[in-house]
Amino acid sequence: MSPSMKETSLETMEKKGEDINGIMKEEQDKLFDPSEAPPFRINDIRAAIPKHCWVKNPWRSMSYVFRDAIVISALLAAALYFRSWFFWPFYWVAQGTMFWALFVLGHDCGHGSFSDNPILNNVMGHILHSTILVPYHGWRISHRTHHQNHGNVEKDESWVPMSEDLYNSLSSRTKFLRFKIPFPLFAYPVYLWYRSPGKTGSHFNPYSNLFAPQERKHIMTSTTCWIAMVVFLVYLSSVIGPSMTFKLYGVPYLIFVAWLDVVTYLHHHGYEQKLPWYRGKEWSYLRGGLTTIDRDYGIFNGIHHDIGTHVIHHLFPQIPHYHLVEAVNKSSETGDRKILPGAEEIRADSVSLNRESSVEHETRSLREQQRRDSILSEGSQPVFASQIRMSHFI
């Protein structure tokens, strides 16, 4: 459909009050427009969340770790038992998905939503993340920067818009690897070593400008744990062979990386619903947080610990994952104005995915993005993500 035909169709639907992107016209009028100043305060949302949603139960958090560990062990045992090309594809997808689930639990440790005990959070975070080759403290600190500056085009750490000048300065090889499917789906390990264009530093280097001097000992600890995991994998290869190690661990690891890149991309990109980026005085913590997107992953919602309820998580990362759905439902209404869509609405209508699967949306969105050449605005007005090139690193 041509742009003019599409615009005409949308106008016709609006006049009739028909459904657009899964939302009735009357409902769209009530939804918060992220390009405008929020008509409410973050404390209004906080006050609507039940008090028990803020309670962190370490035993409940550990139960999810045990659950995931049991599933991973069972899949590993099944793979060793069958050792069949008929079973390997199922194992790779299932195990890679479980690696992603482990990452989400380690992510909760990094936010302190796993428990109120910092020692427990850091110990479990290192175990969970080192197992899947993520430097726990290095990632935790850069991710904290992302949460503190989400939506700020000048300070955000993740998925920051790329100016045309920066894009033009990239080598042909870098452009190809960053913007051609499927390479952006496996960008995360490279990001850990080199970050994104225009930024310097490494998540493994304690003297990187990512970290404050007092954080260096934490980075040394996490890098040591990461190296220990690499040494273990090398030893495992010497025992069972590189091919079997790659089948048991390497392919699931790549599936996990693809999960991480796709999910993070979907939470910070919108096309039918444009997402603004702010700079200077236009930015605020609340405005930035409201530019993230909730996503419905169907049967995977429970498997990867409801990471799709992303808006409320960005505003209040202290809330444990097992309370996120209730928190977003309770905070979806303040007074007579709708703030956030409830989890049931998101999952019933798949509004934010526009009734496309995550993979279909990801592939189409990345291809569309390759054709966008607009220059990043120099003013202080919001910059819409659909009007600029995006870096496809996390």
UniProtKB/TrEMBL annotation:
Q: Which UniProt keywords apply?
A: Fatty acid biosynthesis, Fatty acid metabolism, Lipid biosynthesis, Lipid metabolism, Membrane, Oxidoreductase, Transmembrane, Transmembrane helix
Q: Which biological pathway?
A: Lipid metabolism; polyunsaturated fatty acid biosynthesis
A GO BP term here is: unsaturated fatty acid biosynthetic process
Return the InterPro entries for the record: FA_desaturase_dom, FAS_N, Fatty_acid_desaturase
Listed GO cellular component terms? membrane
- Coarse class of the protein's main subcellular location: membrane
A single Gene Ontology MF term assigned here is:
oxidoreductase activity, acting on paired donors, with oxidation of a pair of donors resulting in the reduction of molecular oxygen to two molecules of water
Q: Where are the transmembrane segments?
A: 64-82, 219-240, 246-266
Record's protein name: Uncharacterized protein
Species name for this entry?
Gossypium harknessii
